[in-house]
Amino acid sequence: MNILDIIAKKRDGKALNKEEIEYFINSYTKSEITDYQAAALIMAIYINGMTDEEIANLTLAMAHSGEILDLSKFGQNVIDKHSTGGVGDKVSIVLLPIIASLGIPVAKMSGRGLGFTGGTADKLESIPGYNTNIDINKFIQNVENIGISMITQTSNLAPADKKIYALRDTISCVESIPLIASSIMSKKIAAGANKIVLDVTVGKGAFMKTKEDAILLSKQMIRIGKLTNRETVCILTNMDEPVGYAVGNSLEIIESIRFLKGDMPEDLKKVVLELGSYMIKLSGKGNDIEENKNKILENIKNGKAYEKFLELVKNQGGDISYIENIEKFKKAKEIIPVYAIEEGYIKQINAQDIGRFACDLGAGRIKKEDEIEKEVGVVLNKKVSDKVKKGDILAYIHSNKNIKEDEYNKFLNIFKICKEKPNIQDVIIDVIY
Ligand code: URA
After folding, report:
1. Given Cys at both, which of 15, 284, 293, 347 links 273, Cβ 3.0 to 4.6 Å?
2. Which is the catalytic residue, given 81, 112, 187, 293?
3. pLDDT tens digits, one per residue of 60-83
4. Is there a single domain that holds both residue 285 and residue 336?
5. Is the domain of 354 the same as that of 274?
6. Is 330 exposed, middle or buried (0-12, 13-18, 19+ CB in 10 A)?
């Protein structure tokens, strides 16, 4: 087999067969194909698309490019959850301890942030001592002992996806439905899940900018799930504005701790309840979605979810005195309030712009090797549809560097204010399965 023929075939809009896809994935993983050849093929896929069969073959080839975790000892229903990415997305950090507190095993591998979207592993590491890099045996042992472990993806989890994702990022080929669908599903399959709940984000701070595209992506992932025997539910959630109030690593951990203690921002609460109730359903522990939501609320109210989070942090080597006293988290050098200069209602807080601003402060990475400043970011004080008066605080910028006037104004401009109260889009847009 020859990579030039494979590139030419896809360039000419023809479907690749299983052997050709496997050849490409295996050879590229072993660096036997150059980045420019892989880039040409990825671009051809981006432009010409793929059939369902090609997408399923690509997914499985990427999943099998590294080790496949065997979690069958945790029962027939091993549930995983994944988000297509967003700003201020701390859903896994609050939801998974809740799920574990309901007796459903959670073995979660999370990614790191890149660009304007954050990553759960980076956020967890802002808890001093928390180790996201434990080996697989210890990871599984943790789940056996306390019902939950949350770590970063091991280097051997779908390594082909890692290489291809990094390549896509450098050649403007991220926003492609076949490539996103196969990337996400390959990691879920490799991580040992057989039931998958996907948070498919839609809007200004998401890869899918429209509901129509999010539905196409969801249906594609559900079809991959069917072809590979993994029951998959997609929850479409709005990502026009950030989720909750905090954006930035330790700032989001602090918001998560407050959430688990009952102080729940409305949009984050809705996402957690919806995703969580489907996770409970897929685990076989309750078919009634509304009842499942009550189970979640009950475990927040009675403190079991918070206790499980403490247990998780302790078990991963984290210092729980930070969780018990959030004042201990290191603060940014400056906390700058940003004031409204006109009266009205908040019409828009573009999540991508907030994410980019937080990234420029040091909360995220432009390049993979960049160091993150855990304590910097943004904490909103107002959300879309809130009423504001001139002089009200819209948000706080947590920064280690001096914020110049033009940066302050750039940030202020992210907030669009109008005279009439805007209609707000419900954060739960649709559920597809
Ligand atoms: N998240 C992923 O894991 N892969 C993509 O391609 C996009 C979002």
Report:
1. 293
2. 187
3. 999 999 999 999 999 888 899 999
4. no
5. no
6. exposed
- Rounded to an integer, what distance in angstroms lies between the CA atom of residue 432 and that of residue 234? 5
CATH number of the structural domain spanning residue 353:
3.90.1170.30
Position in ligand 1 atom list of the atom nearest CA 111: 3
Q: What is the 365 CA–ligand 1 centroid distance (Å)?
A: 16
Q: Categorize the per-residue pLDDT at 367 as very low, low, confident or very high, splitting at 50, 70 and 90.
A: confident
**Any ligand 1 atom below 6 A from CB of 165:** yes
Last residue of some domain: 324, 359, 376? 324
Residue 117: pLDDT band (50, 70, 90) is confident
Task: Let me know if 187 is a catalytic residue.
Answer: yes
Same domain, 231 and 346: no
Instruction: Check: pTM over 0.70? Answer yes or no.
Output: yes
Mark whether 161 is an active-site residue.
yes
Handedness of CA 259, 265, 266, 271 (dihedral sign): negative
Q: Please indicate, yes or no, whether residues 228 and 294 belong to a single structural domain of this protein.
A: yes
Q: pLDDT of 290-343, one tens digit each?
A: 999 999 999 999 999 999 999 999 999 999 999 999 999 999 999 999 999 999
How many CB atoms within 10 Å of residue 210? 11
- 365 catalytic? Reply is no
**How many whole angstroms from 184 Cα to the centroid of ligand 1?**
5
DSSP-derived secondary structure for 326-394: GGGSPPPSEEEEEE-SS-EEEEEE-HHHHHHHHIIIIIS-SSTTPPP-TT-EEEES--TT-EE-TT-EE
87-98: average pLDDT: 97
Mean pLDDT of 218-227: 95
Give the integer Cα–Cα distance in Å for 130 and 133: 9
Best CA proximity match to 296, nearest among 334, 329, 260, 341:
260
CB of 114 sitting under 6 A from ligand 1: no
Atom of ligand 1 nearest to the CA of 180: 6
**Do 307 and 341 fall into the same domain?**
no
Distance 295 CA to ligand 1 centre (A): 31
